[in-house]
């Protein structure tokens, strides 16, 4: 396998600066070490974001995915949180872990939910959330939802989001005590895979402790129009046994954030209108 190390470094540089080039230069040797240590055979490099390099591979436990990152602390957190969620059966199993690297179970077929021709039903998604939230100890969370929302707000503000209403609703939500669970924290539909008969599987947690409604918002907001978002909100709340009013408020808190990310102008406008309380 031939690696384009300059391309790797260029993709990681926005996140890690010039250190990305040093890390990429050492990547072939690190891969050689892990192949020997874990008895794996590397396959194709998979598409990933600006914080990691991911490969398909095979090893003693079958098909797997190898993920490496310059941010060894983030990898350690991911390993710890996947192990917290493991009893749910809704995350990939951790097969091995080392500094800055993790070997994960391969999920098949592994289609991203955002790419599926037919999205999961609210009942299917409710079962997924219920299983996920029944696992893990919220006391083990590396952050609280209150802190994670501040991070999201700061990022969205830099992209020009109007968060006036979002901050008011956030304060209203946090003022009322509610159940606390270990949340995935970043459950957009690009982080949810189809696991075939196994059902939906979550990857790349940004785990935090907080209101279970928070993990439900992306499924609602990724409906492509107003009617679909409202249908998903109502049916998911009923199926998951969560408070529809709190779910609605969380959707309105986060809709302006989502409006700054989506590439579809019509969907962005609907999200902004949802956040402003226009429907």
TrEMBL record:
Gene3D superfamilies hit by this protein: 3.90.1200.10
Domain of life: Bacteria
GO BP field: secondary metabolic process
One Pfam family in the UniProt entry: APH_6_hur
Species this chain originates from: Micromonospora carbonacea
GO molecular function annotations of the record: kinase activity; phosphotransferase activity, alcohol group as acceptor
Signal peptide limits: none
Keyword set, alphabetical order: Kinase, Transferase
Protein name: Streptomycin 6-kinase
